[in-house]
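Interim report, section 4.2 (structural modelling).
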Amino acid sequence: DAKTTQPNSMESNEEEPVHLPCNHSTISGTDYIHWYRQLPSQGPEYVIHGLTSNVNNRMASLAIAEDRKSSTLILHRATLRDAAVYYCILIENAGNMLTFGGGTRLMVKP
Amino acid sequence: GAVVSQHPSRVICKSGTSVKIECRSLDFQATTMFWYRQFPKQSLMLMATSNEGSKATYEQGVEKDKFLINHASLTLSTLTVTSAHPEDSSFYICSAREMRGSNQPQHFGDGTRLSIL
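Predicted structure of the assembly:
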């Protein structure tokens, strides 16, 4: 699977929007962009995924650059419960495995 | 929504003990399940891919005789850490994906924290 690059950590204030960036300059045309997050002492949790178009669900929005070499996970109003490590992962269409990088540790300040 | 149950959540045992961890998909069938290991302040590392009815596929550097995987049904995979030693202490996490579609999210268990004394 193609590699992704994320900042090690980010800080946000509670109830403010958070934009978590991910670079994936070597993405191929069939790679899907997946986001997972891991709260402390828990297994990862699926957040959102997309291919080319921006995506919205109840947890977050995913904005994908036109050239697909980067994407941004948007939490519209951060809460303290959103403090977690967020992983951006590329999966080829027929792929199976998730390869976790370092992720971004999001800290939310009250 | 899809749920994966992992049991036990925590194990503390003596060196030399074998420990079995169960991973169940509660409301869907999973032909493939995955086992990960996570050391403190590190990311998840894939250990093996568990395939229902066939042998597991292990990642490089993971000893198949030490980490025995059995995937006997479409809803259950087990990982047995044989003759565990302190260096095997880690957070073990399983995941599964619903059968339909190759581009579906994976669902993770809550992990098993294994501590070997």
